[in-house]
Amino acid sequence: KELYPDVIVIMLSDQPDKKILISLMRKADDYILKVEIEKLKDELLYVFKRCFAFQDLKNKNKELMNTLSQRNKKLEEEIRTAQRLQKEIFPDKIPISSMFSIHILARPSQTIGGDFFDVLHLDQKHIGIFLGDICGHGIQAALLSFTLANAFKATIASEEYTSAQKIITKLNSTLVKQFPRGSFVSGSYLILNEETGGISFSGAFETPLLHVTTAKEIKKYVNGNIVFLGMVDNKEVKFEESEISLNKNEKIFIFTDGLAEAKDSNRQMFGIERIEEILLSNITEPVKDNCQRLYKEVNTYTNNSILDDVTIIGIETKSS
Fold first, then answer.
1. Is 63 exposed, middle or buried (0-12, 13-18, 19+ CB in 10 A)?
2. Residues 290-301, buried b or exposed e (16+ Cβ, 10 A)?
3. Alpha carbon distances (Å) from 282 to 23, 207, 251
């Protein structure tokens, strides 16, 4: 058995000592007691069949494991390729703003994810920021993120920059045509005015936009009822737009539901209220530190088991 582990070994013995039998069986595949010769014939045939069946099962399991191992390696290679391709749809760097500090923290739950964001200079006076969260996560959501990215870039290229509501409406119309039935996106679009410090905001998002004021209060913007992008045609839905004015050192945060809906071991969600408490208790921190602290707190809350993609975008007006 040591030299040829796949060889079937059957012990045939009239040894009455159970301890000795057990020690023999540690290496044998089966055993037969010598009792009556006639019974022994039937017993031999039965044991042979059982051992051969077990050996055949072991061999099939080995083949199956080898096949699965090869498939896993191929899948891992394909996922790594998809990860490299997905990086191409995100901005290389965040545009520099004279009026705002912008920080983005993005953490997919797997190698690839379904959150998409873009930040771009629209012209010398305006910066556009989009955040989208595709329903689901993993490979299927990641594949749809390419469709979402292309649809958003095409919308930006064809529309005037002055209205966030127009961009969201046009984007929704495109996604209704391009997304498979049952797929949708919760998404928000912001236009930052570099001259006035004002922000126009429109979208269909599960989580509210949080405005942290210098008066140590939080204002929420939800833009009415939630209507996900890509589900309902524009004839049946009208997207709203909000105008937000930020004083110096005030902040706004938008984030995907993976942050607020992260659960602990008792299946209790982290929730919007905890997010608000963290932001208010660390109101003097830079917006980058706020984003990192939020993620750290949620990661601790879930015992390092966040099961959904998380993206946090923080925007702060500069003091000078």
1. exposed
2. bbbebbebbeeb
3. 67, 21, 12
Q: Which amino acid is at 320?
A: S
Q: How confident is the prediction along the chain (320 residues), in pLDDT tens digits per residue?
A: 788 877 888 777 777 677 777 777 777 877 777 765 566 777 778 888 888 888 888 888 888 888 888 887 887 787 777 777 778 888 888 888 888 999 999 988 877 778 899 999 998 889 999 999 888 767 778 888 888 999 999 998 887 767 898 898 889 889 888 888 878 888 899 999 988 888 999 987 778 899 999 888 999 887 655 567 877 776 777 888 888 888 888 999 999 988 999 999 889 999 999 999 999 999 889 999 999 999 999 999 999 888 888 999 999 998 76
Nearest-10 Cα torsion for 287, 289, 292, 297:
-110
Rounded CA gap, 199 and 179, in Å?
29
Q: Which amino acid is at 297?
A: E
